[in-house]
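Checklist before submission:
- one chain only
- standard amino acids only
- sequence pasted in full

Submission:
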Amino acid sequence: MNSAQTNHIPQEAFDWYDEYAHGLIDRRTFIKKLGGLAALGFSMSVLTSALLPNYAFAEQVSFNDEDIKATYAEFDSPEGHGKGRGYLVVPQNNTNKSAKMPVVLVIHENRGLNPYIKDVARRLAKVGFIAFAPDALFPLGGYPGNDDEGRVMQKTLDNAKIQHDFVAAAHFVKAHVNSNGKLGAVGFCFGGYMVNYLAAVDADLLSAGVPFYGTPASAELRKNIKSPLMIHLAELDKRVNATWPEYEHDLKANNVEYTMHMYKDTNHGFHNDSTGRYDELNAELAWQRTIEFFKQKCG
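Returned file contents:
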């Protein structure tokens, strides 16, 4: 379902989904609120299909694409959960197989390594980046196959250990045999927060960070940020946007190179092409900006 098909759905429905997805209301409350709209004439099936993901829509690059090779790789995370695992995608269209390439860490939302995030990793490899997408749910057996269960699973994990796991994953892929030593990171929602956190927790870890609608790291860590950032925000995302003025103040105070793009009339999750929140034009614009930024800073 594209954005044109969902323009008639009240903004409140998208706001309620955001509250549900981030644990501010439970599923029963979310469905009850949608039921109120259904009583006003909105089809419940249209509402749920617009808001809940359908991963059949989320494959832009096939895992069988000849230009890439997708596998899984495990890494050590002694300060996290001991071991981690991620989806590793390496370009295959380079005539020099030993050539050094830039590396990008891809960080999922608050529900594990779902098909949309895997596809994002493949998109990066398709244009010449080694991409690695860790699964925070690996200690619990990995992404369970649906977002609702994945969201519940991720909430049971120690957040500090999850953060250590992503730091370990960043060091792991940065040291890939074909890495040029420059690491970018892109993340969405929780993953956007993780990009901000990685930039702040280790000033030398990232060469570039691209958080999509992610909240900032804690104030005491922000002073460490040195890597350039490209920040994508959705105009209708009140929850995340409320954190931006303070974050921008700190970035300016610490002379961090950054660009912020605010995408008009978009919702939190506008890049995710598996839901009705997807805004194709703005998603493509944000993605092209992201690729050019990584090429400039990491290539």
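Reviewer check: DSSP finds twelve helices and eight strands in the chain.
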